[in-house]
Amino acid sequence: MTSRKSTEIVSNYKTYIRRKALLFGILSLALVALAMYSMTAGIYKLSVDKVLAALLGSDEPQARIVIWNIRFPRIVSAVVAGWALGLSGLVIQCLLRNPLGSPFTLGISQGAAFGAAFAIVVLGAGGAASSAAQTGIVQTVSSSGPMTIRNLYSVTFCAFMGGLIATGTILVLARLKKMAPEAIILAGVALSSLFVSGTILVQYFATEVEIASVVFWTFGDVGRSNWTEILWMIVSTTLATLYFTFKRWDLNALSAGEEAALALGVEVEKIRLLGMFLTALIASLVTAFLGVIAFLGLLAPHIGRRLVGADHRFLLPVSCLLGSLLLLLSDTIGRTVVGSGTLPVGVLTSFMGAPLFLYLLVKGYNK
């Protein structure tokens, strides 16, 4: 009898693992299929055969330019950024034990936006495309339009520093004042308001062209990054993914409570500080390179929990995949449904995530 029960338990566990693996496989195939569709869709229509031929470098030059210079980097950027935001949102929610935690609700994105506005207006990194051409400065923004960022590196650096300052402030307050998780979220909301006010103040003293550059940068757009920036995002996101995958059991223990984690030998303070730093790093890099992409870090982990539960062995890869899927889907819709190819992806993610945020607030959440 005991042996039969043991066999049954082992069989049920194997079935449980197979279902999770099957779901991961389905999501992976859906991401590949969506990426292929995104390659073919757009103003310049391409068949699957032409896309494959262009990827292999054996088709017409025009198709190769569309694929390699526009659509392929855009798709890779959406996949990596979505993965990074899904990962950062999940880890923040686990470390703070609060389902409302995400780079956007903690003020990291707003801090990065303030840093970019500071660089564009105060450091003179933004301006009109015509003036950039006259001065021989390379236009680094791929989207069409009269505005451009003259010095992308200073904008990126200031945006990155803004995101880190927001995270550092949260960590210092949490450590010195022993703030509860819900108080940390409120501190993030206050920081968000402060950074938004700072951005408005900077815009008040800006010229019309500089204001337009700031607004243009603030719109999240996966099409503005180049391969160097994509490589930075890939490296940082890969390292963070490996670290959190290695710490998946610690994340499970933290989900059960700080006391339980300490009893199991988890170094709570160390993993919380390092975890928040890594999530701020990848979220700030994404925001610095692509602009503000709101609520994706909130949306992907919650959908993931509905699908696979709270076990971080499965929730972590599923949340990351969902982040990639949602961001690529939003970008594809923005390029194909609207037709102009210029609808910022951050607008669509806000439309998806804001109702979820309100739902969580109305429903309440467990501590």
Structure description:
- With 367 residues, this protein is mainly alpha-helical.
- It is built from 15 helices and two strands.
- It has helices spanning 2-40, 48-55, 61-96, 108-121, 129-134, 152-177, 181-204, 208-218, 227-246, 248-255, 258-263, 268-290, 296-308, 312-336, 345-363; strands at 126-128, 147-149.
- Strands 1-2 form a two-stranded antiparallel ribbon.
- The longest helix has 39 residues, at 2-40.
Q: Which helices and strands, and how do they pair?
A:
Blueprint: H1 2-40, H2 48-55, H3 61-96, H4 108-121, E1 126-128, H5 129-134, E2 147-149, H6 152-177, H7 181-204, H8 208-218, H9 227-246, H10 248-255, H11 258-263, H12 268-290, H13 296-308, H14 312-336, H15 345-363
Antiparallel strand pairs: 1-2
Helix pairs in contact: 1-14, 2-3, 3-9, 3-12, 3-13, 3-14, 4-6, 4-7, 4-8, 4-12, 6-7, 6-12, 9-12, 13-14, 14-15
Oligomer: single chain
Element order: H for helix, E for strand: HHHHEHEHHHHHHHHHH
What gyration radius follows from the Cα positions, in whole Å? 22 Å
Give the biggest sheet: 2 strands, antiparallel
Shape: flat
In short:
The chain has 367 residues and is mostly helical.
Structural features:
367 residues; mainly alpha; two-stranded antiparallel sheet; 2 strands; 2% strand
